[in-house]
């Protein structure tokens, strides 16, 4: 996820869990609860209206977790994309090494330390989508690595799928207006068509069809792309530009990123993180400006996605599902994903990372969380 501040890989996070019943809004509060005291710059949120996170024992950031053959696999952003295995979400977690055997094959700054993996299994193969980016810029690429053996590998790094800032077709819209990080892939269960979502800040979240082999955009030069979420800034010109500078947002900062696409019959859900993710060492932002987890839903995979009030996510919508709480014990939750319980008849599980003021807000915490 975007860092106009210093690299997030120096932070480690607590992966947490919340059991969900997606009747649109989960048992977790759907709107920010009233705080029990005055909060502001330099003060953690005081509310106790959200359930406390269930802390585990694995430090990760921007986690991706899948369940396969009754085991759990957790992937994290970091040098060569470390990943781990456990028979239970509470651990103990066994290191399986890294996805990449060294830096990404993508020739871009940041290739040694990829961000925000998104992992899925399809037809016996495992796909790890990841981002390579230069901090605070749109100089970014999304790549993919694959393996047939998640426990032993090897993984084959197939390199770049899309690029923004510079790179192949990066001047074509919407690459020229977006930031190619935070990948999320979903295969539409209704027709088998795979889709890639990406985006952070600038014009926020985009989506385009992938080719059937899941390793390239269907038409990279001219993708059938749609904007899924866009933060509206009061008093600003909120019209899209066709092209943006690679190092700044000329029409204001729009802190939406980290999308995760998910389907639970009959709805498609778009989860995302909103707010400042990290770098809270010296001062906290105004309460509510830090990360929170939000969601919208749609009857079709390409949207439009709307929140609980009916506001389109492209009009600044998004129902808040989970935010900072309990006097800084949980601060700035985000980097979320969903593990489906559909096959087993269980609740869906919302997992995410967060920071804990008791440990220090320049460190993320561990895996897992709420139930």
TrEMBL record:
GO biological process: arabinan catabolic process
Claim: Hydrolase is one of the keywords in the record: yes
Pfam families per record: Glyco_hydro_43
This protein's name: Arabinan endo-1,5-alpha-L-arabinosidase
Residues the record marks as site: Important for catalytic activity, responsible for pKa modulation of the active site Glu and correct orientation of both the proton donor and substrate: 182
Molecular-function GO terms, alphabetical: arabinan endo-1,5-alpha-L-arabinosidase activity
Organism expressing this protein natively: Byssochlamys spectabilis
Enzyme class: hydrolase
Keyword Cell membrane assigned: no
